[in-house]
Design brief:
202 residues; mainly beta; 13-stranded mixed sheet; 13 strands; 41% strand
């Protein structure tokens, strides 16, 4: 029986100003309108934790056009610096790995002012598996689970029920690895497919 997490809608968010919605499946899942479908490569016994792992050469790559985020904060203005990314996914045993790569000429690795942000990326799953869940942090009836990476070293497991409601949920099994590439970032986020109730999407 397929693990439910493999069927869930995924929203990819970068920094605070861009986002896109994707469908994720072990083979192929019907994506939401105007969405993209990411094919997940199943490869038992491999280690896909590093952005440079050999398995990523085999995993299908999907080009995703990003959309400006909902302007719910005064800092979300102007034209997004990053307009597209490449997304890949690998399932190895009971673990899901998601790789995101995008162009970014500058590496912002610290937060040194209230209107400055470290580079970052996130993968969002609706906890209830509903493809219609809003990609903007879910809503009161449709919680989302966010795997969040930041270039200053932070990796967070978040649960949200609407814009501005993100809550950090302790979960040591969420891992990340990142590296600067010739023109930007490559980041891998990974987690076990099954978690306890309250820890996120399964």
């Amino acid at each position: 029986k397929p693990i439910n997490l493999n069927k869930k809608l995924v929203a990819l968010a970068m920094f605070t100003s861009v986002a896109a919605t994707l469908g994720l499946a072990a083979t192929t899942v019907q994506a939401a309108p105007a969405a993209k479908t990411i094919r997940v490569l199943s490869a038992a016994g491999v280690d896909a934790a590093s952005p440079e792992a050999a398995i990523w050469q085999k995993a299908p790559a999907t080009q995703v056009a990003l959309q400006p985020a909902f302007p719910g904060h005064g800092s979300i203005v102007g034209t997004p610096v990053t307009e597209r990314l490449t997304a890949q996914a690998v399932r190895a045993g009971d673990r899901l790995f998601v790789k995101l790569a995008w162009s970014d000429r500058t590496a912002n690795t610290t937060i040194n002012d209230t209107n400055k942000f470290a580079d970052g990326a996130a993968v969002q799953f609706p906890v209830n598996g509903k493809a219609a869940t809003t990609p903007f942090m879910g809503d009161a009836r449709n919680a989302v689970n966010v795997w969040h990476w930041r270039a200053d070293g932070l990796t967070e497991n978040l649960v949200a029920k609407g814009f501005g409601t993100s809550t950090s949920v302790h979960f040591e099994g969420l891992k990340s690895a990142a590296m600067r590439t010739g023109d930007g970032w490559a980041v891998v986020l990974s987690r076990t497919l099954k978690v306890k109730p309250g820890e996120g999407a399964s």
